[in-house]
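Appendix B, record 7
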Amino acid sequence: MSALARGPHIVVLSSLFPNANQPLAGLFVRERMFRVGQQLPLTVVAPVPWFPFQSVLRRIRPGFRPDAPGTEVQQGITVYHPRFFCPPGAVKFLDGFWMALSCLPVMRRLQRAGRLDIIDAHFAYPDGFAAGLLGRWLRVPVAVTLRGTEARHARDPVLRHVLARALRMATRVFAVSDSLRQVALSCGVSPAKALVVGNGVDIARFAPSPQEHARQALDLPAAAQVLVTVGGLVERKGFHRVIAALPALRVRYPDLVYLVIGGPSPEGDWTQKLKAQVSELGLGDVVRFLGAMSADKLSQPLSAADVFVLSTRNEGWANVLLEAMACGLPVVATDVGGNSEVVSSPALGAIVPFDDHQALVEALARALDHPWDRRAIRAHAEANTWDRRVDVLVAEFRQLAARGLS
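Structure tokens (predicted):
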């Protein structure tokens, strides 16, 4: 009997997961759990939001909630996409309940087929809440991974209640950063129940190449000072805050170039707003929009750059910071979520207060001037590979299955 057949069957529950029509949604969930799926049998249930007049609204807002296939196979793993009732912007405290109801039929089928021993939910609400209900209905243990939205939900007087209930229902709580673990503890979770298991990096996929060659491939001047950000083009990621810092930096660095890598995401699309900002500031020769890129192609622009910057409003554990470091790049990031846990030393970059324009300008200038030890930065990434994280998760899942609901 194979190791996969012997292991507990994990069903991943996540409403943020790639599908044929949204191939870049929730890649960080798939990256983590498909690696677990190399050691344990895995199925994914990725519910998609729906309400009766959704197709009509899509005529006004093209790209709003793209349809997903009912079932698909990704890298040999079956992914189900049941629809759950979710009117946009209304009664969000009921999302977890409706999600649980929509997923119950497929979960029951998986359980009858011997393919459900543990439910593993990503994001505590609504996914973790739905998983908690399903775990009670089906009598299986539930793991919930906190990924970043929980800090905001914990500050909401309505959502904090359902967030805390989701965490109470979970058998095990994973947090991708200690800052998120502290959120769980503030909601009444026992310290023994909450474990930090950060994200990792694929150091084979993300590896430095000679900067000169990378710049030639992207038609970048050899002597330019190059900044880069990778992420969804949405307000939260803070591209606009970096663009606002460029005029001051350009005075000091006339050859400055800012590479913007990303595209629309389930959170929205700020592409046109960002391009308008660039035009208003007269930065058309500074900012280059390279569009969304697959992970396999990111090493080239990362290797071409001098500094990676992420002026984000909120993060759990931003995989992209380690990916940049794996390419030898120092990082300037805002002091939110788990960013300071990734950029854990001045030898790796700088952490700046969120939405502090002058602090961001000064940190980027220092980073552009500093003689970084890029091998040491790469070594930090090598100490945070996926293999280490996955070994912890697999051991935890085996323990959960052995204990059951006890």
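Remarks on this record: Residues 211-382 form a domain with the Rossmann fold fold (CATH 3.40.50.2000). The mean pLDDT is 92.
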